[in-house]
Structure formats: structure tokens, C-alpha cells
């Protein structure tokens, strides 16, 4: 049995790991790396029997249309959210004039070949089982049994519960190979309750000044988590961009907070037109949740143009900002810059840690619970250092392969 790293080797993004066993080849995820632009894709395998998709975020699903005739296995919610994100990806690529190698037609063809699975399934002679990953709605980790050997691929995972979903579920089986994400292998997150309190204090201060709080947010997962955190601010919230469509999909599934999410979404302001955006700016005292989360585009850019001079407004980031994105540049310099303009932003800017990834301590707890024989670290900028830390702490043989590297077991 071999594992070939097609993407996510010592990097965050373009997750794709090829399992090669006899005449069977299965890719665990098949994503894209969005930054720096233009996007970069995983190594394309010549032959493949199936793609198992852990969740809808483009760094795990964004390259699927490059193999439109291959069967993909994913949860029902992941399929709906993946379609939403992929179609938007095609639109953004066209606007930014870069070639990604597929069209909306390819997206629809790829998803027509998707098989919805929620628990157990088989690809050739490989038995597969999904476990809730605790990352975003619909996200799964994968247990694969290959001739009696168990491989557990976490995908993106979180052990601690969030407002929207519970933490991950882990298998009881003995694990021979653990493939673990390492996004935060080098650090822990801030205590969530204290972070939420600090976040609300910033919002209270702004609303009391009749100002606007702009919350650039990831459409899938983060926007809905913010709605739940801010449930006591319903009368002040407006939601804009693709976050609206993602919320409509997510709230109709049986999640622990689905009922509350529906109630919140029913009452908040849904922004659909430029006139409605202008009215919100004039009115003041608003919390605006909108895409894109890293300011690559979307309605967030419109709002920044309107409030950047105002010290009574705030821009509060709630998600990780990748190097090279306008969001990261704004955080570091106080300047919003894209291809079209440069604005010196006067309103206060801050970032809050509401990550849906496991922090370093959580990752160690997952390893301790599973006690695998071998570990492979992927999807992290510090995979090599994290692998050394794991070996030192647990005495387990740990690998941190690069892209195109093959591990044989």
C-alpha cells in the first residue's frame, strides 16, 4: 500500500492524498490553493477510482471538476455547499481573468457523478466509514480499511464543540496510519468564551456610537457561527453575499442549533441590492456579516469603501487571513489594497480567534485518543516541526512528506 501526496504536503491548501492499493486508487480530498493568485491545483493522477471529499471548503473540494467523470463520495450537505462554492469559484476566476481549467458545466457534471454517503461505503475492496469531523456543517473524517490495515484521515478537524456543531467523533478501531491536519500544529487558540466576550465588547462600543461593525466572514461555517454568537443582537444584524445562500442550506439540516439558526435568520436583514447597502450605511448601528472573509472580493469591499474614513466604525476579522490576501495586508498595515484601489483605513481593525480547526493541544489529544502506529502530518505550514514534536512527545513514527512524495507501508 502506498500514499502519494498530491497536495497539502507541508502547505495549507489543495488537500489531495492518493491511496494506492493493488488496482485501486482513491484520492482523499481534491482541493485548490487559492493564494497566491492564480490558484494552484494538486498533481493530477492519470487513473483514479474515486474521490472522497471530507467537506465543502475549496481547499478540499475545489479541484473536483478537473476530474468530472470520477465518482465522488461526500455527505449530502457537503454536496450542496460544494456546488455553491464551486460555481462562485468559476465566477470569480472569470472576473479576475485567470484560467482554472473548468467551467460551470464541468462543475455540474462532476457533482452529477457524486454519490451521497453518510456513514459506510465501499470503493472496490476498500471499506470506508465517515465520522463527524466537528469542523464545519457536513464535514467528515474518513476511516479506511485496506486488507485489515486501518487508515484514519482527519481532513480538517476540531475536538472542541462550537455553537453550531459538536466536536469530532473518533473511531474505536486500532489505527495503523493517522493522516492528520496540522494547520495549528504550532499554536493553541485563545479561550473561546473570553474571545466571544472581547468580541461583543468591541461591538457594543461601536453600536453605542451609532457606528457600523463590518464582519468579513467565510460563507460556509463561520457566517453561521457568528449569527449564533450574536443571537442577542438580532435587531442590528444584516447579512450579505454568498453567506445568505450558505445559511439557507445549512439551517435546514438537523444540527444542534438548527432551530435557533432558523429563528435568527428569519429576523435579520438580508441584503440583496445596492440600494439596500446604501440604506444600511446611512442608518448606522449595524453589524454586517458578509463575504469575502479575506477581502478578496464580494460585498465586503463595497462596505470598506464606505466606512474606511470613519473612526466610529470597526472592521473585525473572525477568520484566518492567508498571506497575500487583502485581508492580511489590511491587518498588517492598516491599508486596504487590491488591483483597483488603495485605501488608508482610519476605522479600528481587529482579529478574533474563532477557528474551526483543532489547535495544537487538541491535535495532541486526538493523537493520544487514537494511539496510532504511524502518523502523517499534512495541511500545515509547519508540518516538519510538528512531526518532530509528535515523535518526541509520543514516540510514534511520524512523517511530514512534501508534495509528490510517496510513502509505502
User: Largest sheet, if any?
Assistant: 7 strands, mixed
Strand order, main sheet: write it out.
6-5-4-3-2-1-22
* First-last Cα distance: 6 Å
Strand content: 15-25%
Radius of gyration: 21 Å
CATH class of the largest domain: Alpha Beta
Fourth-tier CATH superfamily name of the largest domain: Ribonuclease Z/Hydroxyacylglutathione hydrolase-like
SSE class: alpha/beta
| Uncertain stretches | none
Number of helices: 12
* Percent helix: 25-40%
Tell me the number of strands: 22
Average pLDDT reading: 96
Write the layout of secondary structure elements.
Elements: E1 2-7, E2 16-21, E3 24-28, E4 50-52, H1 58-61, E5 72-74, H2 76-96, H3 104-112, E6 114-116, E7 120-123, E8 126-132, E9 140-146, E10 149-153, E11 177-181, H4 192-208, E12 212-216, H5 222-229, E13 237-240, H6 243-250, H7 258-267, E14 269-270, H8 274-283, E15 286-290, H9 299-307, E16 314-317, H10 326-333, E17 335-337, E18 342-344, E19 349-351, H11 360-370, E20 374-378, H12 383-394, E21 397-399, E22 406-408
Parallel strand pairs: 3-4, 4-5, 5-6, 10-11, 11-20, 12-15, 12-16, 13-14, 13-15, 16-19, 20-21
Antiparallel strand pairs: 1-2, 1-22, 2-3, 7-8, 8-9, 9-10, 17-18
Helix pairs in contact: 2-3, 2-6
